[in-house]
């Protein structure tokens, strides 16, 4: 398909894998972190089954990295997040929150520690590069903050382990969940981690030379051919099943960690200093006024993910909103993440949702909706 069909401009960047994704059938793109991301390789349900039955390769170069180096890099990274990083080892990843002075969430990246004072924040969709540089100016800490030439791919699904062995040999089996290592694939420099935004077993390959993007994509697709690897895109169905957040949808600057049940990512008792600590102490002491819940929406099969926030209603009063909704072909029901006033957060409570001026019944149910103990993602090879 010719690129001219997409109407691209120069103000939005293309990923290093752009040409390969078009070659392999990408027919639609959206914008994330000021970069085009392929969002359509055909039927989303087929993409979901490919992910959970074999494997898919996703261009997620939009997960831009903020690189923090310098003598005070560790002190600075701890200033950005309420999660205690004192036990973070070199070679390890952590899921963290970035909070502002009011305790609002600015991003929920994966943090990689490449050296004692060398870190990457692998970002959701918001300008943490600018936030970090602004914080650094007033921090009196000796740090350098840049966006490096780093672009991740996600290889996700049960067959991803066999494909990685084909590419890197048997030693890749020793890579533990949420750890990474530096590797070289035929002269292509990589960081490979056992992470991913899919709720399935998988890997992320962080390319460190953007000129080799299409070469890397093609090598992986070739290695995966015998294992049924398909080109794909991050699956809204699977990530909602797994209760994974999408920043700007399920969380934003006005959302605090306690509303999302992410208390484990906030250390208020220790002596670590971070932006938003006093605000989060007060929020915890006062108690939250709303909570994220899981919902089953009892209507006909949804045709796709919601593109607007759907109001939730009790006795003609709006008590919250659906933030992410989709039909799960595996669970055979419509599932959703929602933010509701706390008095309506109890499991089995019935409420109503308004979708295009029609009201339907919902029931508050446990989340995540599938694999609550995360046995799939954390299993050993």
In the CATH hierarchy, the third-tier topology of the domain at 3-64 and 150-240 is known as: Gyrase A, domain 2
- Derived from helix and strand composition plus strand pairing, the structural class reads alpha+beta
How many extended strands? 21
Query: Cα-atom Rg, whole angstroms?
Result: 21 Å
Percent in helix: 10-25%
What does this structure look like?
With about 375 residues, the chain is α+β, with helices and mostly antiparallel strands. Among the domains are: about 5-65 and about 150-240, Probable tRNA modification gtpase trme, domain 1 (Gyrase A, domain 2), CATH 3.30.1360.120; about 290-380, Beta Barrel (Elongation Factor Tu (Ef-tu), domain 3), CATH 2.40.30. The chain has helices at about 20-25, 45-55, 75-80, 130-140, 160-170, 215-225, 235-240, 275-285, 375-380; strands at about 30, 35-40, 55-60, 65-70, 95, 100, 105, 110-115, 120, 145, 150-155, 180-185, 190-195, 200-205, 230, 290-300, 310-315, 315-330, 335-340, 350-355, 360-365. The strands form five sheets. The chain has a six-stranded mixed beta sheet with strand order 12-13-14-11-3-15, sandwiched between helices. It has a six-stranded antiparallel barrel with strand order 16-19-18-17-20-21. A five-stranded antiparallel beta sheet has the order 5-8-9-4-10, covered by helices on one side. Strand 20 and strand 21 (about 360-365) form a beta hairpin. The longest helix is centred in the middle third of the chain and has 12 residues, at about 130-140. The two termini are about 40 Å apart.
